[in-house]
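Hi,

Apologies if this is the wrong queue. I'm a grad student, and the batch job for Histidinol-phosphate aminotransferase from Longibacter salinarum produced an output file that my downstream script rejects. I'm not sure whether the problem is my script or the file. Here is the sequence I used:
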Amino acid sequence: MNSTPALSSIDDVISLIRPSVRNEHAYVVGAPSHCEVKLNQNESPFDLPADLKEELAEAFTKIEANRYPDEQPTKLRNALAERDGVDPEGIIVGNGSNELTYTFGTAFIDPGTPVVMPRPMFSLYEKVARICGADLTPVAPSEDLSFDAGAIEKAVVETDAVMTVLTTPNNPTGLAMPMEEIEQIVSAANGVVVVDEAYVEFNPVGSATHLLEKYPNVVILRTLSKGMGLAGVRLGYMIARPELAHEVMKSRLPFMVDRFSEQIALSLLDREDLLAERVGLMKQATQKLIAALEEMPGVDVVPSDANFCIFRTDRDADALQADLADAGVLVRNMSGYPELPGYLRVSAGTEAENKAFLTALERSLRGADTA
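Support response: The file is valid. Your script probably expects a header line. Output copied below for reference.
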């Protein structure tokens, strides 16, 4: 009687994992634990107000933890639809917008599917495309690091792309696309165009939701992590034509949004004045941060339409990041993007956090000049 030999080592087991997965790196934001000023992940510096936390603590006692949530959080979906002026049937709420990014991969990308993505852009999109086996066409930016709309349109047409992703304002550059450039690409595409609006609250250009009525291939992606300050709750959503959302739902895992997360979001959405005030403060803080960096000798900063900015100096980015961490300030090194050698990214924090960052940066640069 023949038997299949047992796997002889862990390497044999690991070899069973698809090569497209093994070739990737885990998405990990490594950071020292001793830093008190955390400006490396584009988060809101504002936690939920104490009185709202008290309300939520009371609400938590009424949640039936033994019961599954709905496949879609209906109350939250309706509240978001009313806020954005869209059809609730066209909204899918996810466990953060990152989860929906993977959903796009399973819904639209087979091995060999043509996908167009401008660079530099949030790296998770390219990672998902590669894991799914996409025929990926990256598009280089313009000299000022903005997306090259003409080159993107050309790539979309030439490859007959099934999916194109535009992030506006863009992470990591902070630059927003003009609305006419977004529509230029959407109108040329035979495939879906995902417009990631994670930083829409800060965007002077506004939202592309009005394109949904004219173009059936538009998909808008949003998050509650940035302007709304719910990064720790994990909520995001997509907006599309209801017919398209219905099909995309087929590729999703069920029960991705828990009851308590829905309640937190609903309670915060009831405080529009608070949200508007906080977004306004973050906008002001970002522009003050950029102005301060522009005044520093030897610092090159890129203008931003988000709640962060990127900058570079004559110093090695790794060394400068380490200096800032030693001073208790976390920033993000963007040098992993081929288009951003030497750049660091800093989020706008509270006034005290921004001052601590600027002080640490100035000291580090001054110390390097005298060394």
